[in-house]
């Protein structure tokens, strides 16, 4: 089952007919979590992002679902481009806290904030908790645009986790840096502000619904 869905994610990325937009593979804005990890199983995340000065897009609506502990999927809409947007992330290797083993994530979607590229990517993740109120998460990986597979881009991200509520972060998509801070206001509400390409402001609001808590 896990292998089949992994191959399915790759196939979706290779289709090249659907556009996607996101903040990056490990961005806390898009994941609705403080550290940018996958969405909890049986949880929904409804998210809207507004980019006033976006060159390619100024607004994205998105819904993400935690299908399994190791897989989340999403679908949305690019308002200006009038295109369907979607993404998927599969955790192929789980990070071990008591060793140096990182987590490994394979995904498809957009790795460029404020753009509408379709990409296939993988990245390694490693978190470190220094105290109850402070930790950090490092990510690095590679991505290729569809269908320009001869172009390979490096990915990197750094997220600070403060009091399990605030997450200042910086992401690098192979060309530009994107900085911001995410705030988990409540168990169901997250708010973030960021600078796309270090210059264009954007705001994102996410509403999370955990079906497990309703059972």
Q: How would you describe what is shown here?
A:
With 215 residues, the protein is mainly β. The protein has a single domain, classed as monomeric porin ompg (Porin). The chain has two helices and twelve strands, in the order H-H-E-E-E-E-E-E-E-E-E-E-E-E. It has a twelve-stranded antiparallel beta barrel with strand order 1-2-3-4-5-6-7-8-9-10-11-12. Strand 6 and strand 7 form a beta hairpin. The protein is globular and about 45 Å long. The two termini are 26 Å apart. About 9% of the residues have low confidence.
Overall pLDDT level: 78
User: Which parts are unreliable, with pLDDT below 50 for 5 consecutive residues or more?
Assistant: 4-23
Helix content: under 10%
Globally, the shape reads: globular
Helix-and-strand structural type:
mainly beta
CATH superfamily: monomeric porin ompg
Q: What does the radius of gyration come to?
A: 16 Å
CATH topology: Porin
What's the β-strand tally?
12
Quaternary status of these chains? single chain
Biggest sheet, open or closed, and with what strands and sense? 12 strands, antiparallel, barrel
The arrangement of helices and strands along the chain is: HHEEEEEEEEEEEE
CATH class: Mainly Beta
Query: Helix count?
Result: 2
CATH architecture: Beta Barrel
**Cα separation of the termini:** 26 Å
């Amino acid at each position: 089952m896990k292998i089949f869905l992994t191959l399915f994610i790759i196939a979706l990325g290779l289709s090249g007919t659907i556009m996607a937009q996101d903040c990056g593979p490990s961005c806390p804005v898009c994941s609705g979590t403080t550290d940018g990890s996958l969405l909890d199983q049986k949880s929904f995340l409804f998210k809207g992002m507004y980019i006033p000065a976006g060159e390619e897009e100024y607004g994205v609506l998105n819904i993400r679902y935690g299908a399994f502990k190791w897989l989340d999927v999403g679908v949305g809409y690019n308002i200006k481009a009038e295109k369907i947007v979607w993404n998927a992330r599969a955790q192929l290797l789980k990070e071990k806290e008591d060793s140096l083993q990182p987590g490994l994530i394979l995904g498809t979607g957009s790795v460029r904030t404020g753009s509408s590229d379709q990409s296939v990517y993988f990245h390694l993740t490693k978190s470190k908790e220094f105290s109850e109120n402070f930790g950090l998460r490092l990510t690095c990986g590679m991505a290729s645009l569809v269908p320009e597979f001869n172009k390979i881009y490096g990915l990197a991200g750094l997220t600070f986790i403060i009091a399990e509520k605030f997450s200042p972060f910086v992401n690098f998509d192979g060309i530009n840096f994107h900085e911001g801070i995410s705030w988990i206001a409540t168990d169901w509400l997250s708010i973030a502000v960021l600078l796309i390409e270090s210059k264009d402001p954007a705001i994102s609001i996410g509403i999370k619904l955990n079906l497990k808590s309703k059972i």
